[in-house]
Amino acid sequence: MASIFSKIIKGEIPCYKIAENEDYFSFLDINPIAEGHTLVIPKKETDYIFDLSDESLQGLISFSKRIAKGIDQSLGTIRTGIIVEGLEVPHAHIHLIPIYFEGQPVSLGRKTDVSESRMKELASLISNAVEL
Ligand code: AMP
Question: Is the pLDDT of residue 1 over 90?
Fold first, then answer.
């Protein structure tokens, strides 16, 4: 069965899209731990990130870098952090976490409320700043 992320790529489930290219796709996490919390995934479905080919993993990191630079440029972060867990959705993904101040808690358990209109705004701000 296709993962929820494969359904997002196909447009069967809505998302706050950031960017895509031929091989990778990026969108906001719906349970953000910080404003602009973003996921980056390979379009080809693989559960465990370390089962990706070297080429695919390198491509995922390079694509994530471009998204992270867009986050930094558009949201005024001090930097963007990176987390890989993968226990909930069996489709390899990287979490990009905007860090706004030193000491900001960065762990996946801590959800923060972001309104739908702000999610739309964040996706647009980041998306416009990303250079692929
Ligand atoms: P994990 O597999 O533990 O690395 O986390 C999976 C992440 O996917 C969680 O942070 C969820 O909030 C996020 N997530 C699950 N479903 C969706 C969705 N439909 N759109 C955006 N993010 C999602």
Answer: no
pLDDT > 90? residue 130: yes
pTM: 0.98
Check residue 94 and give its pLDDT: 98
74 Rama class: left (phi>0) / alpha (psi -120 to 50) / beta: alpha
Q: Tell which one of 88, 91, 108, 116 to mutate to probe ligand 1, the residue whose CB is within 8 A of the most ligand atoms.
A: 88
CATH for the stretch 4-129: 3.30.428.10
How remote is the CA of residue 88 from the centroid of ligand 1, in Å? 7
Pairing between β-strand 94-99 and β-strand 17-20 as defined by DSSP bridges: unpaired
Which pLDDT value is given to residue 45?
A: 97
